[in-house]
Design brief:
Blueprint (H helix, E strand, L loop, with lengths): L10 H8 L21 E6 L2 E6 H4 L6 H5 L9 E2 L5 E5 L3 H13 L11 H11 L2 H15 L6 E21 L2 E18 L2 H10 E3 L10 E6 L8 H6 L5 E3 L6 E3 L2 H14 L3 E6 L10 E6 L1
Parallel strand pairs: 1-4
Antiparallel strand pairs: 1-2, 3-4, 5-6, 5-12, 6-8, 7-9, 9-10, 11-12
Helix pairs in contact: 4-5, 5-6, 7-9
Length: 295
């Protein structure tokens, strides 16, 4: 029986070669070897990026980071949209700043008034950095002995409306006198605990003002910019906003509730309890005065 074998150059096979079935596209292969010593390493910790070296990450070989980045341990990095590699760790990004500084310096160097030692201790325990856990234990012991526990914290805030007049340009030769109401806030914080007062100063930032350090008082004045008021007029009047948070994570305080919420958070972090609210105890965040005590 004669077998028929089509010629490779036949039209049927030519048409198939023109329109091949496309394979399913998979992500590019991920490198399986860690970066070399001496080069930069990028970590994404809870959405915050840090750049460091393998020498820093493996300073304590018995820690989790030391085991992760030990030479010869393959750890595939996640690829970011730009194509570069970084290592993702699903932990608190802000606290990792102090973890990394401890790895670099070999000592605990926290900012004045730092009130998140409990969170930092939990992170140090996760990364299994025993020297850092020991340093935190010593810090908490030293803070607890010489500093008196009894303290008083008082926060007052007052809002006053202000009618601002300005000229608004409506056309090439047409100007119109406009008015807008601006809420101006003045606050005074009094605290006998210097550490808590330092944490308050660190929590709030006032644009363009150098605040004097020292003393039990901390004063603030701010006025959110209304949408109807041009930015140039806002600056000309000498008004300024109030910000809270850390650099890179600042948010504007637009009224009394936002301000008192931050005061309450810092007070509770330093062991204070709420003693009195004026004028209405049922409306805490819209009050004019809060008093905290610590026995």
């Amino acid at each position: 029986m004669t077998q028929f074998c089509p010629h490779p150059e036949s039209s049927a096979f030519s048409s198939l070669s023109v329109s091949p079935v496309l394979p399913k596209i998979s992500p590019p292969p991920v490198p399986s070897s860690p970066p070399s010593f001496g080069g930069p390493v990028t970590l994404n910790v809870g959405g915050t990026l840090y750049s460091t070296t393998l020498e820093t990450l493996t300073r304590f070989p018995d820690s989790m980071l030391g085991a992760m980045f030990r030479a010869g341990t393959p750890i595939p990095p996640n690829l970011n949209p730009q194509g570069g590699g970084h290592y993702f760790i699903d932990r608190d990004g802000k606290a990792f700043r102090h973890i990394l500084n401890f790895l670099r310096l070999g000592r605990l160097d926290l900012p004045r008034g730092y009130g998140e030692t409990a969170l930092l201790r939990a992170e140090a325990d996760f990364y299994q950095i025993q020297p850092l856990l020991d340093a935190l234990r010593e810090l908490e012991t030293s803070r607890g002995s010489p500093v008196p526990t009894a303290a008083l914290l008082h926060a007052d805030v007052d809002a006053s409306p202000r009618l601002v007049h300005f000229s608004a340009r409506r056309g090439p030769h047409h100007y119109e006198l406009s008015s807008v109401r601006v809420e101006t806030f003045r606050a005074n914080i009094f605290c006998t605990d210097a550490e808590c007062l330092g944490a308050m100063r660190a929590r709030f930032g006032v644009a363009g003002e150098n605040r004097a350090e020292g003393g039990p008082h901390f004063r603030l004045e701010w006025a959110p910019c209304p949408a109807e008021l041009p930015e140039v007029e806002y600056r000309r009047l000498g008004l300024q906003p109030l910000w809270t948070g850390e650099p890179g994570e600042l948010r504007e305080v637009v009224g009394t509730p936002g301000f008192l919420e931050e005061v309450l958070r810092v007070a509770l972090e330093h062991g204070f309890r709420l003693d009195s609210v004026f004028p209405d105890p049922e409306d805490l965040l819209n009050s004019r005065s809060l008093r905290f005590v610590r026995h």
